[in-house]
Structure prediction request, 873 residues.
Amino acid sequence: MPREERCRILIVGAGPAGIAAACAAAETVDSVVVLDDNPAAGGQIWRGEENRWTARLRVCGARVSNQTRVIAMLDGGRVLAERDGEPLVFRYEKLIIATGARELFLPFPGWTLPGVTGVGGLQALVHGGLAIAGRRVVVAGSGPLLLAVAAHLRERGANILAIAEQASFRSLLRFGAQLWRTPAKIAQALELQWTLRGVLHLKEAWPIAAHGDGSLREVTLRTRAGARRFACDYLACGFGLVPNVELAALAGCELRDGFVGVDGWQQTTARDVLCAGEPTGIGGVDRSVVEGRIAGYVAAGRREKAERLFGERRRLHGFSAALARCFALREELRHLADDDTIVCRCEDVKLKSAFEHEGARAARLHGRCGMGACQGRICGPALRFMLGWAESSGRARPPLFPATMNTLAAVGEEESAHV
Amino acid sequence: MGDEITVTVNGTAVRVAVGTMAAAAVMSVGAVCRRSVMGETRAPLCGMGVCFECRATVDGVEHVRTCQVLCRQGMVITTDAA
Amino acid sequence: MSAAASDVVIVGAGIVGAACAWSLARAGVKSRVLECGVAGGGATGAGMGHLVLMDRPEAEFALTRYSRDLWSQLAPEIPPEGEFRQCGTIWVAANESQFEAARSKHAWYQERGLRSELLDGRALADAEPNLRVGLAGGLLVPDDAVTYAPWVTRWLLERSGAEVSLRARVSRVQRDAVVLADEERVACGVVVCAAGCAATELFPALPMRPRKGHLAITDRYPGFVHHQLAELGYLDSAHGSANESVAFNVQPRATGQVLLGSSRQFGDESVEIAWPTLSRMIRHATEFIPALARLAVTRVWTGFRAATDDGLPLIGPYGDAGNVILATGHEGLGITTALATGELVAAHILGHAPAIPAAPYLPSRTGARAHG
Prediction:
C-alpha cells in the first residue's frame, strides 16, 4: 500500500488557477498540497516564467509536488497519483480541480508532419529549449493565443511569416471593442500590436495543407485572396482551447455543455470538490486567477474574502463570453481533412475509416479510433467538432493517464467495497 | 545561468542548457521521437504532455513523454525513429 | 423501419449473435439482428478474444474443440483488422505438482489426436523470457489462437447479409414476435436470444448471473510475450463458483500491446473498477512476469460474463411457446465457442443433426422453466 498523505486542501494543477487557489487557501490553512504533471509550476501560460504569483506560491506554505500525475479517484476522499513510476495516495478534505485546458487540433492534410505543432505547443517547446531564433514560423488557428505566442516567439528571434486567424476582421473588431471592460487587456493588446508590427496578419485564413517529406517544408493557407504558400520550419496551429474535464468527470462532477458546472462558490456537484479556471469555462489567465482565488478562499472557509472577488469574476465571465462569440469556429473548418487524413494519431486511423462508424464508441471499438495512449484527448474533440459525435458514454475512466501496473496494483489492500 | 549538461540522443552526445526538456534535445539533433503505427515520423505536437507524440525511451524506460522530462546529466534518450 | 417479417430474429449483435447469423446465412436462412448498443459492445468487446481448448468438463471440451476447428477454417478469410493470430497458449506450471497436471493433460490431448508440447523449465524460459525464473514448466497448445472479437463480430454480420438494427432494445418476447422498447413489434417465427447477461431481462428464470471481470491493456511493447499465457490454476478459477478469484492470463496483441486478465466475481454489478480485485489480479500476474510491473497501462475496463449455475452454456430451445432458442450463458468462452454455438443454433432451427451432441447444452437440462 503506498504512503498515504493527508492534507486539508488538495489542488490538482499548478497553472494560474491552481497557484492562485493555493496562495489563497494557504493564507488560512496549514496543509495545502498542489499536484502538477510538469517539472515546475506555471501551467501552460506561465511555463518557465517567474512572476509574482509563482513567487508567492514558493513562500505561501503550500507543498507542491511536481511531475505528479493524477491517475484515479478513490473512495473516501482520496486521489491516486503517480510520480516517477511510483504510486502516491493523497487524502483530502477539500479538492480543487484546476486542470486547465488543452488546444483543439483540427486535422488537415499533412498535419502529422514533424514541424506542425500547437500554438501553445510551440511556445511550450521553445520554453523547453527548442531553438527558434531565425526559424521561419507560420502561426495559425484561432484566438488571442495566436498573437500572444507570435509576439513571444518574435521576441525570441523567430521569423514570423504570417499569422492566420480564422475569425473575420469584423469579429476581431468586436472583440477588441469589448476589451474596454478589462483595461489591462487593452494595454496587453497594444503591446502585442507593437511587438508584431510588420507581421502579416491574415483574417478569415486557415491552413489547408502542410507539405514535406518526413518533416515540414511548406504550408498552404487559404486566404480571402486565394491560396498562399509559405515555405517554413514550423507551423504552430491550434483552434482554441478544450477544457480538461476528465478528472472532474471521474470525481462525479456534473458537466454542462462540456464544462464543469460550478456554483458561485466554485463548488461542483460532487461533495467537497471545487473547480476553478478553464475547466469551468475558457477565459484566459485573469479568469483562472480570480476563480482560483475564490475557490481557495472557499475551501479554506473564508467566504467573505471570496465574495469580494465576485465583481471581478463577473467582468471576466463577460470576457469569456466575448471570446467564445468572436472566435467561434467557422463551418469550413469541419471539412479540412480529406478521406486519407489521419484523424486519430495514436492509432493512425484515417477519416474515411472513422466515418464508417455510427459514433465515437463504435469507432473506438471497431476502428481503434481513440484507443491509443492519448485516450482520445486529441482526436475526441476534433471528431466531435467535425462529425458531431457526442461523448460516447459520458463516463470518464481511470487511469486518467497511462500509469504503471505497479501503480494500479498499489491500491486495494485496505479497501473494502468500492463506492 | 548558462550551465550546460550532456545527454545522449540515439548515441550522439548533445550539450544542452540546464532546464532543457528531453524533447528539445531530441529535436536539436534533427531526430524525430517516434514512428506511428503506419511508420510515419512524428514529433511533439502539444508540448504539454497530452498528445503522446513525443514518446521515446529515456534511461531504459519506454514511452516516456519527453516534453515533460527535464534533461539530466548523462541521460540516455533513444527514439523509435532511430 | 421495415415491417417485413423475418423468420428469424436474433437478439444481440455480439460475437454469438453474429455467429448465429453467419451459420444461418450459410444454410440459406436470412435473419434480422436487433442490438441495443453497438455490435460487439457487450461482453464481446470486454473479453480477451482468446480462442482456447478447454479440457474439462467433457461437454466444454467437445464444444471448444469443435469451435476451435471452425475458427481455424475461418482464419484464412479473416482480414487483418480481425487481428487473428495463431500464437498458441502456454499453460504455465508454477510448481512440480502443476507440472504433473500438465503432463497428464499432454497425455490426454495426445490420446485424442490434439497437438500439445510439454515444456520443461528451460524450454519455458526460452519460449517466454519474461516469465520469472524457477517455474516448473508448461504445456504449449499451438493450435490455440487470439482474435479481436468486436471487429470480427461486425465482419461476420456483414458477411451474413443479416439486417442489423442498432439502438433496438427488445423488451418482450411473444409467440410470434418480439416487441421493442418503443413498442414496435417485429414479427418473426423464431427468436434466438444471444443477449448475454441481458437475457435474464427477457427470461428472468434463466439460471444465469453476471460474473464481473477486469482487464488492463498496456502501451506497445512488441515481443514482451509471444503466446497467450495462462496458469494451470486458471481452470479452477473459471470452473469454481468461488465468489471472487483472479488468475494469471496474459495475451500479446498484434499491436504489441499486452492484454492482462483475468478476474471473476459475483455480486458486483457496477461497471466501476473494483480496486481490490484489480490489484490482486495485477499482483498475481507479476508473480509470473515481474517485468509486468513497470509496463504503462493505457486502459482498464470491466465486463460481465453470462455465467450459468453449472458452467455450461444454454444453447437450444427454451420455454413452452416453441419459438425461442437460447444462445447464451457462455461465461468466459463466448468468443471461443461462438462459431460452434452458431452451428448448433442453425441445426436446431433447421432440424438438422448437429456436428456434436447437443444434449449437454440444452436449456431443458437445468429444469428451469420459462413463464408463459
About this structure: Residues 310-326 of chain A form the longest helix (17 residues). The interface with chain C takes residues 72, 74, 85, 358-359, 361-362, 365-366, 371-373, 375, 395, 397-399, 402-406, 408-413, 415, 417-418 of chain A (CB under 8 Å).
